[in-house]
Design a protein that fits this description.
Layout: E1 2-10, E2 25-27, H1 35-39, E3 44-52, E4 57-64, H2 67-77, E5 81-82, E6 88-99, E7 103-109, E8 112-117, E9 125-126, E10 130-138, E11 141-153, E12 157-164, E13 170-172, E14 174-179, E15 182-190, E16 196-206, E17 209-216, E18 221-230, E19 236-237, E20 252-254, H3 262-267, E21 271-279, E22 285-293, H4 295-305, E23 309-310, E24 316-326, E25 329-336, E26 339-344, E27 363-371, E28 374-385, E29 390-396, E30 402-404, E31 406-411, E32 414-422, E33 428-438, E34 441-448, E35 453-460
Parallel strand pairs: 8-24
Antiparallel strand pairs: 1-6, 1-26, 2-5, 3-4, 3-6, 7-8, 9-11, 10-11, 10-18, 11-12, 12-13, 14-15, 15-16, 16-17, 17-18, 19-22, 20-23, 21-22, 21-24, 25-26, 27-28, 27-35, 28-29, 29-30, 31-32, 32-33, 33-34, 34-35
Length: 469
């Protein structure tokens, strides 16, 4: 939301008072919203009557308004200084209220689409998208697919990206996680027959290569590799070439809503994307050249531009600028006569948790892992939590000591997680596992943090009380 304070100065039309305009304000302090009122999301109007000596405010009377809002209004008008005028009394109205945080202006100026949003934050470091060529192999053959990945940091390291389909469509990866140089995610790709298949993959990244294992949603495993195609580029930055044809809102009969991209908002990315666009005797875009812009903003702009439909089926070339702006404050003092516009983002609403939810009972699984390093046995206490809708659990070590599993996800009967076990050499071994659960058995593949692959199975043990965590 935008928090907007409107200040309207005007003469009160009273039987006992004369009508005269509010004198021009030559000096004033910054208008601040009272923190407590902002936290409590208090809004409303404050009506004041101010008295002047011809230069400054000598008296203020509060006619009505919430005390916290009145305090802010009174403190501010006491700082006002005016051009020389006849002393008198004037009515002033402060209007405090919230407006929607996002706004879009679509081609109100020819060739410019502007998206404005309140910054959310949360991402304090990120890498730019990088292109990879991925190869997925098993007994049925090899599937090649373009893969785009980037990493970012919130409270922990994250990885995101997408595969590219045969028609150039983006298919977002899911259930993604990364620990050090060990990425994992679910991806959708097409095989050579045009069938769309889902895969869970884990890998170890070394330089410009990733090597790992996968399990498809049929429970069939295999290996995969990927080679980095291009290093990340901060932005395309050619000198803009301006076309002769301008484009206005009346030329476009349809377009999707222009939203501020989530990632860019969280990472504080803003700026312009300049595009050179062509149409070819149709009502859709035929070609786009990116002239400049941050890759995350470019991706958003291109996605929106592909939804445009034009009124005339003519051949044309034109420039479009998508302008992305993050605003956490805005002040326009008397830009319009008698109006002060102060914008700010209100504090986030904190969830109100009440009550205690009992933990769901976990299930004990006896796992056996086999790789070139040797065989490993592990007892895992895990299950789905209805409270958090996520897979959780522990590895039960000697003397009942528990080590929590991490990087967990579950999609129906497909699951994945990382855990630490005692390796064949008696040392701790970190591994990433993928599995398919069928009734009381899990079968899958794993990759240890050194890059050694293997297979594993787990059998559910007889039910017993595992509620103590």
């Amino acid at each position: 939301m935008w928090l907007v304070v409107y200040l309207v100065g005007a003469l009160a039309i009273r039987a006992q008072e004369s009508t005269q305009p509010l004198p021009e304000v030559t000096e004033h302090a910054e208008i601040r919203y009272m923190p407590l009122a902002r936290q409590a999301r208090i809004q409303g109007q404050v009506h004041l009557q101010i008295t002047t000596d011809g230069h400054t405010v000598t008296g203020v009377a509060v006619k009505d308004g919430h005390p916290l809002l009145s305090q802010a209004a009174v403190e501010n008008v006491r700082t006002w200084k005016f051009v020389e005028h006849a002393p008198g009394s004037f009515d002033v109205t402060f209007k405090f209220h919230f407006l929607d945080d996002d706004r879009v202006t679509f081609l109100q100026q020819p060739g410019i689409v502007e998206a404005v949003a309140s910054p959310e934050g949360g991402i304090y470091h990120y890498t730019l998208p990088e292109q990879w060529n991925a190869h997925i192999r098993n007994a049925q053959g090899t599937i090649d697919t373009p893969l785009t990945l980037w990493t970012y940091h919130t409270s922990e390291s994250e990885i995101d990206g997408y595969t590219t389909g045969p028609q150039g469509q983006e298919r977002a990866i899911r259930n993604s996680h990364i620990t050090g140089d060990m990425p994992g995610f679910d991806a959708t790709v097409d095989d050579k027959y045009g069938q769309r298949l889902k895969f869970s993959v884990i890998g170890k990244m070394t330089g410009d290569k990733i090597r790992g294992v996968f399990l498809n949603y049929w429970g069939v495993g295999g290996t995969w590799t990927a080679e980095r195609v291009t290093k990340a580029v901060s932005a395309v930055s050619q000198s803009p070439r301006f076309a002769q044809t301008s484009i206005t809102a009346t030329d476009v009969t349809y377009h999707d809503y222009v939203g501020y991209p989530w990632f860019a908002n969280q990472a504080g990315i803003q700026g312009d994307v300049q595009l050179r666009v062509s149409t070819d005797y149709s009502d859709i875009v035929s070609n786009v050249e990116v002239e400049s812009g941050n890759p995350f903003l470019v991706r958003s702009a291109l996605g929106n531009l592909r939804t445009w439909r034009f009124r005339d089926r003519t051949q044309r070339t034109f420039e479009v600028t998508y302008s992305y702006r993050l605003m956490d404050s805005k002040v326009e003092f008397l830009k319009n006569p008698g109006v002060v516009d102060v914008g700010a983002t209100p504090p986030p609403v904190e969830p109100n948790y009440s009550g205690v939810v009992d933990p769901d009972p976990l299930e004990i699984w006896q796992a056996e892992l086999t790789s070139a390093r040797g065989d490993v046995r592990a007892t895992v206490d895990m299950g789905m939590s209805s409270q958090y809708d996520a897979l959780e659990g522990y590895v039960i070590g000697p003397e009942g000591k528990k080590k929590e599993i991490w990087a967990t996800h579950q999609d129906h009967d497909m699951l994945g997680f990382d855990m630490t076990v005692t390796g064949p050499e008696g040392k701790p071994l970190n591994i990433s596992l993928l599995g398919k659960k069928i009734r009381n058995k899990i079968t899958g593949v794993f990759l240890d943090y050194a890059g050694t692959a293997g297979t594993w199975t787990a059998i559910r043990q007889a039910s017993q009380d595992t509620s103590t965590r």
